[in-house]
Every structure is written in structure tokens, then in C-alpha cells.
Design a protein that fits this description.
With 246 residues, the chain is mainly α. It contains 11 helices and no strands.
Length: 246
């Protein structure tokens, strides 16, 4: 066999070997590279991994408040959403996600989550509505809050808050131990439409709750919270504790 023929055979053999190797079992295929967790920037992936378990797919239908609710997105600005996502809420199931607060997400990933949640806003649904403030401007009055509760809430949650024909207890010890005062305020304003709970405009037909009434009923609810929910006093019945009542 002359030299050119030998070179041609070697070239063909080398090509066949390379082709076989490129399809060998276990060889990574194009596009299969693993992206480091801190470089994932897509909102859908970040939300699904970190938020959907509590707040539900697409921001609704979970155990926690619906982040896609138009009222929630109208009263909570980007700073409030970012603060909660980054730092969590102490004493509640809401964890801190930012690396600066002990979580796993970078500042850029937190920004991506906030931006994605904001994209769900539907301002046309609340345009022209006089919205109550997201945070309490001044502390509420729990004593007046008892009257507010009787007016706006007792028809569903019962006269003492322990449940009625239409809704469950809102003063349950375990529930109050797991929600912050801001959580309570947000729920009073936004409601839980997916559970049949109306927002601040629709508890009583034609009678919208004022910002002060919202603050007062939140103060009343917070006053029902046990100071030490899992620590009964000596000689007291199991589960007994002191309520934080002024």
C-alpha cells in the first residue's frame, strides 16, 4: 500500500474513532452543563425552588398569602417585598433567603424574585381605590379593636374569634404564634380570596374598614397571642399561659 493510501486509511479510522467517542455512554451532551446555584437568574426557576412551596405556583393557591394578589401588590412596594424575601420574618415560617442574612441567594437573585413578583401586578383592578397603608402608621388600640372585630369579623369567625359557621378560629394559639403583626395586618387588608375571606372593603357590604380600624383590630388580634405559647406556668393546666393584653 502506497503512502497516500495509508494516510487516507488512517484519516478515515481516526474520524470513525472520534465519531464513536462523541456518542459514547456518559459523555455530556451540548447544553447539559450544570449551572452553579448562585448563577441561576431566571425568575421561574428561582420562584419554583424558593417560594412556590408556601405561596403556591404563580403566586397563589399556597398556605401563605397570595403574592400575585392585586391588592397585596398595590400596598406592598418593592422595598417591602425585598426586605421580607431577603431577611425573612423572625418568629414565623418565613426564612431569610439572602446570603447576607444566612440564606442561599445573592442580591441579584433576590432582585430577580422581586421583579418577577412585581410583574404579576394588575394596577387597573385597584386604580382609584383609597388604599390603607401597608405598615401601621401608629400602634392600634386593642380595646377599640374588640369593637371593630365584632363589627367586621365576628359574623364569620365567631363572637370570640374561635370560629363560626363560615370560618375557623382566628385566635388559635398555634396560628398566632406563627404569624407576625404585619402578617395579620396584610391579611386583614388583602383577605384570602382563595379561602373565601374578603378584603378590607367587603367584610360588611357598603362599609369599608378605615386605616385606624385595621390597626385597632390587628392590635386586638395580637393581644390574643400567648406570651409563652409552649411554656405553661407551674400548677397551671397544660397549655396555659399569659396573653399579651395591655
Amino acid at each position: 500500500m502506497n503512502r497516500p493510501s495509508i494516510l487516507l486509511v488512517l484519516a478515515i479510522f481516526t474520524g470513525l474513532v472520534c465519531a464513536a467517542c462523541s456518542h459514547s455512554p456518559g459523555r455530556p451532551v451540548a447544553g447539559s452543563e450544570v449551572i452553579p446555584p448562585d448563577q441561576i437568574m431566571g425568575f421561574d426557576a428561582l420562584y419554583a425552588r424558593n417560594c412556590a412551596g408556601c405561596h403556591g405556583p404563580s403566586g397563589k393557591g399556597g398556605a401563605a398569602i397570595s403574592l400575585s394578589d392585586p391588592v397585596f401588590l398595590a400596598i406592598a412596594d418593592d422595598a417591602a417585598i425585598r426586605r421580607t424575601a431577603a431577611n425573612g420574618v423572625s418568629g414565623t415560617p418565613m426564612p431569610a433567603f439572602a446570603q447576607s442574612a444566612g440564606g442561599m441567594l445573592t442580591d441579584q437573585q433576590i432582585d430577580a424574585i422581586v421583579g418577577g413578583i412585581r410583574s404579576w401586578a394588575r394596577p387597573d383592578l385597584v386604580r382609584g381605590e383609597p388604599l390603607p397603608p401597608y405598615r401601621m402608621p401608629v400602634p392600634g388600640d386593642p380595646r377599640h379593636g374588640a369593637d371593630v372585630y365584632a363589627t367586621y369579623c365576628s359574623a364569620c369567625h365567631g363572637p370570640d374569634g374561635r370560629g363560626g359557621d363560615k370560618a375557623s378560629s382566628i385566635v388559635n394559639n398555634s396560628y398566632l404564634a406563627l404569624v407576625s403583626d404585619q402578617d395579620l395586618r396584610t391579611i386583614v387588608i388583602v383577605g384570602r380570596p382563595e379561602l373565601g375571606a374578603p378584603d378590607w372593603r367587603n367584610n360588611v357590604p357598603g362599609k369599608t374598614m378605615s386605616p385606624q380600624e385595621i390597626s385597632d383590630v390587628v392590635a386586638w388580634l395580637a393581644a390574643q397571642r400567648l406570651q409563652f405559647p409552649a411554656k405553661p406556668f407551674p400548677n397551671g393546666p397544660v397549655g396555659s399561659a399569659t396573653r399579651v393584653i395591655p
